[in-house]
Amino acid sequence: MKGKLPKKSINVTLAFAWIGVISHAWMLSHALTIGSGAINIGAANAFSLTILAMLMIMLPNARKHPDLTIVAMVLAIISLVVSESYHSQLTLSGARPILSLHIILSIIAYAVLMVVGIQAAIIVLRHSYLKNPTGYFFSHLPPLMSMEKWLFQLMAIGAVLLSLSLLTALPFSDLWFDRQFIHRSILSIVSLVLFVTLLALHHFRGLRGKPAAKCALIAFIVLLVGVSGSRMVQELLLNRT
């Protein structure tokens, strides 16, 4: 039936997806641990950890949003390739609890907002599909109303987590405007402002549809450039830690 994937296909896909998640977690646990209680939270490992958290968010909702699961599995494969190809290292040993909390909140926030970015991109493409209805993938997506509702729910959760992540970074505020971190700090704050503004416009003005999805995608790209982009450049190209 149009609009739904066969139940058997979904079950098989989910089985392989969970096997992939378990394998991903096992491989990542070895990459993170470097002995003596220290962990390697370099750019490649941080990216893989974010993808793993994103998969854990997506898979329980896979039956309602099979579109996201397919995209997530592609990203998981990319993250494994990145982890195996680039061996950047940022060692944490005996870190203060507040720093550990900041790292955990940041990774979960980026994972949630990555789902938001993917969902926003699919919604934008879905609106284009409505004008030119071709392709198996878009004809089997959930209703737009359902996709948009989940988009804003995740956006609200992601905005709260990103706010908490920035708040837990306050004890290290002397580093916020350090030359190495200033672009990351500014772009993270700009992204948060964009997400909060979008949520306010949705709540008070009823903003939705393609314009809202485009704004969400822009906010996510700002965050992606500020965090992942700068970190990958510093660690992989400039060999900084």
From TrEMBL:
InterPro entries assigned to the protein according to its UniProt record, in alphabetical order: Cyt_c_assembly (IPR002541), YpjD/HemX (IPR052372)
Coiled-coil segments on the chain, per record: none
Cytochrome c assembly protein domain sequence ranges: 24-237
Keyword Transmembrane helix in annotation: yes
MF terms (GO), sorted A to Z: heme binding
Keywords tagged on the record: Membrane, Transmembrane, Transmembrane helix
Domain of life the protein comes from: Bacteria
Membrane spanning stretches: 12-32, 38-59, 66-83, 103-129, 150-169, 181-201, 213-233
One annotated GO biological process: cytochrome complex assembly
Lipoprotein keyword on record: no
CC terms in the record's Gene Ontology section: plasma membrane
One Pfam family here: Cytochrom_C_asm
Name by which UniProt lists this protein: Inner membrane protein ypjD
Organism: Wohlfahrtiimonas chitiniclastica SH04
